[in-house]
Amino acid sequence: QLLEVSHQIWAHPELCYEEHFAHGLLSDAISEAGLEVERGAYGLDTAFRAVAGGGSGPTIVICCEYDALPEIGHACGHNIIAAAGLGAGLAAAAVAEALDGTVVILGTPAEEGGGGKILMIERGALDGVDAAMMVHPADQDLDSFHAIANHELHCEFHGKAAHAAAAPHLGRNALDAAVAAYTNVAMLRQHIRSNERVHGIFTNGGDKANIVPHRASMAWYVRSGTAASLAELEPRFLACLEAGALAAGVEVTSEWVSAAYDDLVVVPSFAERYSANLATRGRTMTPWTNRMDLMGSTDMGNVSHVVPSIHPMIAVAPTGIAIHTREFTEHARGPAGDRAVIDGAVAMARTVVDLWCDAALLEQITVEFARHP
């Protein structure tokens, strides 16, 4: 059943906040297993919540992601995240009452830029929760992920249209402003920290070649190691946009899209227990510090600042096959992807049981989490 769920979601890729097929498929599977599902949870059409147990023991959240990417589908393997989370949640639910614990299966839409978990946190999704987890596909088994803070920005340059041949002097070229801004950012990249990234695309560059472009727009991601260092980088980035507009004699407006993604807080004892459980599946875990090149951002980072969390990476492709590529998309539907669904589900379910049964473990995790600033 889990593999069929994974394959079906893979075959129906949906962008952020449009994951109606995946939302229905997962909700139906949970309902058929005997749990009550709140569909459209927290005011988000494609979010869901299901709870099992309800004793006096710890409350553990398992997060499912299921949105895809434009053009290349499930190149981040969210079909695997969803199916593994479903399996872990249903397995834990089967023993929750006997072990006096509570498991919450959360369907969290829009990880790829929409910040679904951030909105869910603001609306109470983590109230009363003791710990949270999910597992993410990669090209290697890693105990965590080098996730840095990220903020998405959309900007638009406003110029003045004119005939590009007959009267170019009457125009003010918004595309020139955008190109200048892009060049400015390229120069900025030489003088930022090694764990900072700024990358963007042109989303509009004019209407016709013989019209001076009166409008040009861009979409950007600005990333840094922590929320604090991101706040320092953002005004430097904005200055690049403003300088491009000034040089071309146009105006620029910009908007930060949703809240910023936080960096991921790593809790060693939590990651180690998951790693030990994954080892029972014949996998050898590599410390995430050995793969600092695997860098990105996730709204699970925001979760990790609220409750102790893990975000391990599970191998579904040969080493060197990067996520967000067409090659990775194919592996997410292949035999290694299927194995990751089952191994990830079992390892997470066993980790939930450990948190219910080992009070000393949860106490240690809580202490380590509290040390993070």
Short description:
Helices cover 39% and strands 20% of the residues. With 373 residues, it is α/β, with parallel strands linked by helices. Helix 3 links the parallel strand 3 and strand 4 (102-107).
Terminus-to-terminus distance: 42 Å
Q: State the strand order across the main sheet.
A: 1-2-4-3-5-13
Q: Describe the biggest sheet?
A: 6 strands, mixed
Would you report the number of β strands? 14
The global form is: elongated
Instruction: Calculate the mean pLDDT score and round it.
Output: 97
How large a portion of the residues is in β-strands, by DSSP E? 15-25%
Task: Kindly report the oligomeric state of this protein.
Answer: single chain
* SS-based class: alpha/beta
Q: Nearest-angstrom radius of gyration?
A: 22 Å
Uncertain segments: none
Please work out how many helical segments DSSP would assign.
11
State the share of residues found in helices, binned by percent.
25-40%
Topology pattern, helix = H, strand = E: HHEEEHEHEEEEHEEHEHEHEEHHH
Features:
373 residues, alpha/beta, four-stranded antiparallel beta sheet, 11 helices, 39% helix, 20% strand, elongated
Structural notes for this entry:
With 373 residues, the chain is α/β, with parallel strands linked by helices. It is built from 11 helices and 14 strands. It has helices at residues 2-11, 20-32, 78-96, 116-122, 174-188, 227-248, 268-279, 300-304, 326-331, 335-357, 359-371, and strands at residues 37-39, 48-53, 59-64, 102-107, 131-133, 136-138, 146-147, 149-158, 197-204, 215-224, 251-261, 295-296, 309-310, 313-315. It has a 6-stranded mixed β-sheet. Strands 9-10-8-11 form a 4-stranded antiparallel β-sheet. A two-stranded parallel sheet has the order 6-14. Strand 3, helix 3 and strand 4 (102-107) form a beta-alpha-beta unit. Helix 1 (2-11) runs antiparallel to helix 3 (78-96), helix 5 (174-188) packs antiparallel against helix 6 (227-248) and helix 7 packs across helix 10 (335-357). The longest helix is centred in the last third of the chain and has 23 residues, at 335-357.
